[in-house]
Design a protein that fits this description.
The protein is an alpha+beta fold. The chain is built from 2 helices and 2 strands; from the N terminus they run E-H-E-H. The protein has a two-stranded parallel ribbon with strand order 1-2. Helix 1 (40-56) links the parallel strand 1 (29-35) and strand 2. The longest helix is centred in the middle third of the chain and has 17 residues, at 40-56. It is elongated, with a radius of gyration of 23 Å.
Length: 92
Amino acid sequence: MSLKPPKKSDLNKSWMKPKPDRGMKIQPEYHLIVSEGTNTEPAYFEAIRDIINSRYRKKIQFEVSGEGDNTINLFWKAKQRAADSANGFRHV
């Protein structure tokens, strides 16, 4: 297909008219964020969640949890929470 713009004489022809867009249903994405801190980090990620949800209208879902534990235990808790959840987190 050429990168040239269409000719004015071709604009009214049926083969030049754009096809109607088909609606595509977008499934929401679920993300789990587990942090070491119990106050600051969850508040920070919840603020980010609110900004994203205001723009994308609940298409991206965040679950934020502050565990207050060390890195290794935090990993295992996040893995267990993702396995137990019915949402099916896309990113942990």
